[in-house]
Amino acid sequence: MPSPEKYSLKHLLAHLPVDAPVDLTWLNAHMVRSSYAAKLARTGYLRKLGAGVYCTPAAKLQREPCLAWLVEQMPGIHVASKTALAWRGIRHNLAVKEVLVLWGEQQFKIPAWFSELFPTRHHTTHIFDAQMEPTLGLASMPGKPPAIMVSVPERALLELLSEVGTHIGLEEAKNITENARNLRRDVMDALFLHLTRVKVIRLAESFARELNLPWLDLVQMHLERMGVTGRWVLSRPSSLETFSLSPKK
């Protein structure tokens, strides 16, 4: 009769995913205790990624399965901004090495092994008020794990505009915005009602006016509602990382 350890090893090897990590919760559910997992890592049956996180020695870790695992560890994070727009088919140029942009409501630390495999930028920026339903403007995507929530184009664009001057250049943001002509007015309206960043709505209005986008009147209506009146001029200095918005004289 096989020993419990030999049985658990056989069971483990039959069920280990080859494209995603497993943690102690998963291992315990498959009859593998933490001490035995550490032993398996020392003897080469598992590869240790981080504290309590393992994969098969020959695992070919894939971004989406790994991201689905990360979402389970850090509830509330979602794919946002430039990445969300690109995933939903709105981009300007193909990046040589795409950086995965994640947003969350609370501070979170991306595991080192994850960032090494998949370059990641994460934020806890709050551009909407506390009354907004956190899942407004978030949805899963066909062909990706359902646990991964991704900003819809309307929310992703506002997230992108909030990053102008820090992580996104002005011209790049404008070019991406130009490709987001067909945004849904009802979704934009719902998001604008909770938007708190004046910088974001000013940029949205400036780009929409310059590019003659069909949702310009909606942005202007919310500018007036927020008390930001008059036409604003977007100044483009030599550096794309700096810009200013000032009332037109």
Structural class computed from helices and strand pairing: alpha+beta
Low-confidence stretches: 237-242
Q: Structurally, how many domains make up the residues?
A: 2
Distance between the termini: 88 Å
Which quaternary structure do these chains form? single chain
Give the C-alpha Rg: 23 Å
Strand content: 5-15%
Describe the 3D structure.
It is a single chain. The protein has 249 residues and is of the alpha+beta class. The protein folds into two domains: 4-55, no CATH class; 63-247, no CATH class. It contains eleven helices and ten strands. A three-stranded antiparallel β-sheet has the order 1-3-2. The chain has a three-stranded mixed β-sheet with strand order 4-5-6. The chain has a two-stranded antiparallel sheet with strand order 7-8. β2 (47-50) and β3 form a beta hairpin. α10 runs antiparallel to α11 (216-225). The radius of gyration is 23 Å and the shape is elongated.
Blueprint (SSEs and pairs):
Elements: H1 4-15, E1 22-23, H2 24-29, H3 34-42, E2 47-50, E3 53-55, H4 63-73, E4 78-79, H5 81-87, E5 100-103, H6 112-117, E6 120-123, E7 138-139, E8 150-151, H7 153-162, H8 170-178, H9 185-192, H10 198-211, H11 216-225, E9 232-235, E10 244-247
Parallel strand pairs: 5-6
Antiparallel strand pairs: 1-3, 2-3, 4-5, 7-8, 9-10
Helix pairs in contact: 5-7, 7-10, 10-11
Question: How would you summarize what this structure contains?
Answer:
The protein is α+β, with helices and mostly antiparallel strands. It has helices at 4-15, 24-29, 34-42, 63-73, 81-87, 112-117, 153-162, 170-178, 185-192, 198-211, 216-225, and strands spanning 22-23, 47-50, 53-55, 78-79, 100-103, 120-123, 138-139, 150-151, 232-235, 244-247. Helix 7 (153-162) packs across helix 10 (198-211) and helix 10 (198-211) packs antiparallel against helix 11.
